[in-house]
């Protein structure tokens, strides 16, 4: 059996480091990303964008830096060399983390980084012009205080969201990114299998979470990136509850977890039953599987993201769930993009008209929530190829054998 029956020690022993051969994104690919962004900016008439510390800075420059109350980031012009902006006392540290080198514009603690940003743009040849303001994008992940600090100093710039550039580039993954994502997905699926094998009556959700942390380290991740473990009625709440549950026979089990290696993130949910399976659990589990399959089938090149969400809801409605977001049924979007961030653009939701394109990666998780009873979520991810969608991990096999391990 794949659910229960082994000890924690045996389950951990079944796992081994899976990171051998993984290749981090190199300097050449970061340079290609910058060139792609600049070509797009020139085509769109965007003069420059500001990339704040965090995933956007890492994506384009390879420089890892965490966002804080101090402005740290990079200025990417539509033409010319990228430059950084940082506190003076951080210059040497920032330089040490750089993959793509560039001039560092430094500000002392009593000075304004926002004035420095505006001055740097002018020096880079992007001058303010009240009659025809150059378009300057501000990183969508930057805290409001950064925009608020720049705005009064930049009446001659047309400030806008840089998402048009960042999302265009980041949503279309390269072969190297796909390879890294495939490995981290494989790692988390192996953790799921091991976790299911060590469940026993009386174990708590906290104990399972602790095991998953250990299991992710065993396969080579620093830790779990996140972990949701739910039993019984608590599985009807998509992102969990504020109390610990104890496993008993007949409980629905929902585990949603992932890890992060070389900046890329996994995110997989498995739902099954510990012990005897009721007719109700079996029926809902199968409806969830059908909705996930319907979404996958609808995900074809050129199709708007919203159509994928609609396909899942049509499937669920045919089994008596919904309609729309009504419960019992699917209360959230069908899926999200994924990559350096666990939730990225575009989204598989009704109002997202983005056409599916090669390299886009999504979760597929049209969860069924039945308040007072249980919830079922199958979550796997797929990526778009020139021939259509392809799974990173194969969907759950059946409620009797969710991992397809039984002979």
TrEMBL record:
Keywords for the protein's UniProt record, in alphabetical order: Hydrolase, Metal-binding, Metalloprotease, Protease
Signal peptide annotation: none
GO biological process, one term: proteolysis
Residue intervals of the Creatinase N-terminal domain: 33-170
All residue ranges annotated as the Peptidase M24 domain in the record: 180-386
Gene3D superfamilies per record: Creatinase/methionine aminopeptidase superfamily, Creatinase/prolidase N-terminal domain
Record-level Gene Ontology MF annotations: metal ion binding; metallopeptidase activity
PROSITE patterns named among the record's database cross-references: PROLINE_PEPTIDASE
Keyword Heme: no
Protein name (Swiss-Prot/TrEMBL): M24 family metallopeptidase
């Amino acid at each position: 059996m794949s659910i229960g029956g082994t000890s924690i020690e045996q389950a951990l022993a079944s796992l081994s480091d899976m990171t051998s051969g993984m290749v981090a994104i190199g300097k050449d690919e970061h340079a290609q990303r910058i060139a792609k962004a600049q070509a797009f900016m020139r085509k769109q008439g965007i003069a420059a964008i500001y990339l704040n510390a965090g995933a956007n800075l890492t994506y384009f420059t390879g420089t890892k830096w965490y966002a804080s109350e101090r402005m740290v980031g990079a200025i990417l012009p539509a033409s010319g060399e990228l430059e950084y902006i940082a506190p003076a006392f951080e210059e040497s540290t920032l330089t040490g983390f750089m993959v793509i080198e560039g001039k560092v514009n430094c500000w002392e603690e009593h000075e304004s980084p926002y004035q420095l940003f505006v001055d740097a743009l002018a020096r880079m040849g992007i001058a303010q012009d009240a009659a025809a303001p150059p378009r300057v994008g501000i990183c969508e992940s930057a805290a409001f205080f950064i925009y608020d600090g720049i705005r009064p100093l930049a009446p001659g710039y047309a400030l806008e969201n840089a998402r048009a550039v960042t999302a265009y580039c980041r949503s279309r993954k390269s072969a190297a990114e796909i390879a890294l994502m495939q490995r981290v997905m494989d790692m988390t699926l192996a953790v799921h299998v091991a976790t299911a094998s060590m469940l026993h009556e009386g174990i708590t959700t906290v104990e399972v979470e602790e095991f998953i942390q250990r299991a992710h380290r065993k396969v080579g991740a620093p830790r779990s990136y996140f972990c949701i473990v739910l039993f019984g009625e608590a599985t009807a709440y998509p992102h969990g509850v504020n109390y610990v549950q104890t496993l008993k026979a007949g409980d629905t089990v929902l585990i949603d977890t992932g890890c992060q290696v070389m900046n890329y993130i996994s995110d997989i949910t498995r739902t099954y039953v510990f012990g005897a399976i009721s007719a109700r659990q079996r029926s809902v589990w199968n409806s969830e599987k059908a909705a996930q399959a319907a979404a996958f089938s609808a995900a074809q090149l050129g199709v708007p993201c919203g159509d994928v969400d609609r396909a899942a809801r049509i499937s669920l409605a045919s089994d008596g769930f919904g309609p729309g977001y009504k419960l019992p049924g699917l209360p959230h979007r069908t899926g999200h993009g994924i990559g350096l961030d666990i939730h990225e653009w575009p989204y598989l939701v009704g109002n997202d008209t983005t056409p599916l394109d090669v390299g886009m990666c999504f979760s597929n998780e049209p969860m069924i929530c039945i308040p007072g009873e249980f919830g079922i979520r199958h979550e796997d991810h797929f990526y778009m190829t020139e021939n259509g969608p392809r799974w990173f991990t194969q969907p759950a096999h059946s409620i009797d054998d969710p991992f397809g391990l039984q002979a």
